[in-house]
Design a protein that fits this description.
This protein is of the alpha+beta class. Helix content is 46%, strand content 17%. Strand 1 (91-97) and strand 2 (105-113) form a beta hairpin.
């Protein structure tokens, strides 16, 4: 008797058996969109912070004098601070305002493309990161890096 009631109960609810799969498909789509968005934006903000740190490092180096290796060593030192992007894709620009004299300012601008994880449905604010930092010049050794 108990078996007959179980089968009758199961047949009565049989049309709803696919509802859970449909609900899972809808909810999982939103869940994965959120997870991938968190991953992409987390890495975007990490790159934004490392670009800012590279610009601040470059401004500090420029304010105390360009390293003895010259312009190439200066650019390599700044590019090395970015870390997550190939150094060939990083652009470093140093300008002194108004001139390279003690008490004036040195501005370093670091530009590089963001790294996308390939999630086309996650929009980002821009395709490049541009960070800039300024420091007071304390010592002048070389101004050969002032352009480019």
């Amino acid at each position: 008797m108990l078996r007959r009631q179980e089968h009758a109960h199961a047949r009565r609810f049989a049309p709803d058996s696919g509802a859970a799969a449909v609900e899972f498909a809808i909810v999982s789509l939103l869940f994965f969109y959120l997870v991938f968005g968190v991953l992409q934006y987390g890495f975007y903000f990490f790159q934004l912070q490392s670009g800012g740190a590279a610009a601040r490092h470059g401004a500090r180096l420029a304010s105390v004098g360009i390293p003895t290796g010259g312009c190439a060593a200066f650019r390599d030192a700044v590019k090395g601070q970015v870390g997550t992007v190939d150094a060939a894709q990083v652009s470093v620009q140093l300008t002194f305002s108004p001139s390279a004299t003690v008490g004036r300012s040195a501005t370093v601008r670091v530009t590089f493309p963001i790294t996308r994880f390939g999630f086309p449905f996650v929009p980002l604010p821009s395709d490049t990161i541009v960070e800039e930092a300024t420091a007071r010049v304390e010592q002048v050794e070389s101004t050969s890096c002032s352009t480019g």
